[in-house]
Design a protein that fits this description.
By secondary structure, this protein is an all-alpha fold. About 65% of the residues lie in helices and about 0% in strands.
């Protein structure tokens, strides 16, 4: 038996007088009940609003996934009461997609730090006594040991000097503990140091001024930026050094601006559709809604695919390089599925013959990818300037 709803004689919203048998306030329309809502009531309302049979999400989910173009057509037929709004759907799916990318990138960076950073910057004492190092393969252990030798003995110019230094500091039995050959350790040579690695090292050295770093970056060559003032040129040098100092942070900053860039591209994509289908006399808003639905589907599918690629298809689960191959196959399959979904959506929304639709679909895709590259380049430049 359903519990009796507790009612009030005064509307909690507008303060109007209510009779006890009033279900709703005649002035503002709010439900006539008191504020003493139990947790179970809140939980049931949440389930009803988002997962109930009569909810917009439940009504929208099946046609959104398996009936391309259906939500767009129903929206323009005026059937909007039982379906989720296109903008809300886009925001939810884009949030899921970009959150997935951020999560995967942060997870990769943390794993890299946990597995490598401890060793590549460690002292030889830590390497000698670290039990985790013993679990590594000989080749990996050798590479890590070499990095530490480079850091500690950067001024040593010959193999004999390295042997003497190690002998004086740790004894001849040091390398025998690791079962590696000292002869395979290359002596650091600044002339042979990679250009990118050198720039990373100099950028992190706080003793070096920005101007000195810039000279090293340009290898002593003169650069004239006629489009920049002196202050802007100094800012340019600072930004370049920031990126070399923390390139992962810059990647995250660029990634953080991508959702805004993609949202700005929606009206552009709709404009391309308006231009291609100019004879169909559709309103611009119809193309906007169609663009929102297509992008929402792409965000959902690619977000789930990335999670599968890097959480389920791992090197540990599929040895001998099979994971890379499976990721490539899955990525291609998802591209085909997404393209097919968009093509069928074009057919149902604009109702033209399949061959004509195929031609227009490819033209729209080519133009959109062209502008996507331009916008992404601009986004990277803007992110670079304000990083």
């Amino acid at each position: 038996m359903k519990a009796k709803q507790r009612r009030s004689t005064t509307c909690n919203n507008c303060g109007s007088h209510l009779e006890e048998d009033y279900n709703y306030c005649p002035s503002c329309g709010q439900s006539n009940s008191d504020n003493n809502v139990t947790f179970s009531t809140l939980f049931k309302e949440f389930l009803d609003n988002y997962f109930g049979i009569d909810s917009k999400l439940a009504h929208s989910f099946i046609p959104f996934l398996f009936n391309p173009g259906a939500l767009t057509n129903r929206f323009h037929e005026g059937k909007v009461k039982h379906f989720i709004h296109p903008v809300r759907l886009y925001l939810v799916m884009s949030l899921f997609y970009f959150f997935t990318i951020s999560y995967l990138l942060s997870d990769i960076n943390l794993n890299t730090f946990d597995e490598e950073a401890e060793y590549t910057t460690a002292s030889i004492e830590a390497l000698k006594d670290n039990s985790r190092l013993q679990l590594l393969s000989d080749s990996t252990r050798m590479a890590l040991l070499e990095d530490s030798l480079v850091d500690r003995y950067s001024n040593i110019a010959s193999f004999d000097q390295l042997v003497d230094s190690l002998d004086a500091d740790y004894g001849k039995d040091f390398l025998e503990d690791f079962k590696v050959s000292l002869s395979s350790v290359s002596i650091p040579d600044r002339k042979e140091e990679g250009y990118i690695n050198k720039m990373h090292r100099l950028a992190r050295d706080n003793r070096i001024a920005d101007s000195v770093f810039w000279d090293s970056l340009t290898q002593g060559g003169k650069t004239n930026f006629k489009l920049f003032s002196n202050s802007d040129e100094a800012h340019l040098q600072q930004q370049v050094r920031k990126i070399f100092k923390n390139d992962e942070g810059f990647k995250g900053f660029v990634l953080g601006n991508l959702p805004l860039m993609m949202f700005i591209l929606i009206p552009l994509f709709a404009g391309i559709l308006k231009l291609i289908y100019v004879r169909r006399k559709h309103l611009y808003i119809k193309h906007i809604v169609h663009a929102l639905h297509i992008h929402s589907f792409a965000y959902l599918i690619y977000g789930l695919t990335l999670l599968i690629m890097f959480k389920l298809i791992t090197e540990g689960s599929f040895p001998d390089g099979q994971a890379v191959g499976l990721r490539g196959i899955l990525g291609f399959a998802v591209f085909v599925v997404t393209s097919t979904y968009a093509y069928i959506s074009f057919l149902k929304v604009y109702k033209q013959q399949w061959f004509k639709t195929l031609i227009k679909f490819n033209i729209v895709g080519f133009i959109y990818v062209f502008f996507l590259q331009i916008f992404f380049s601009l986004e990277v430049l803007i992110s670079f300037w304000y990083y």
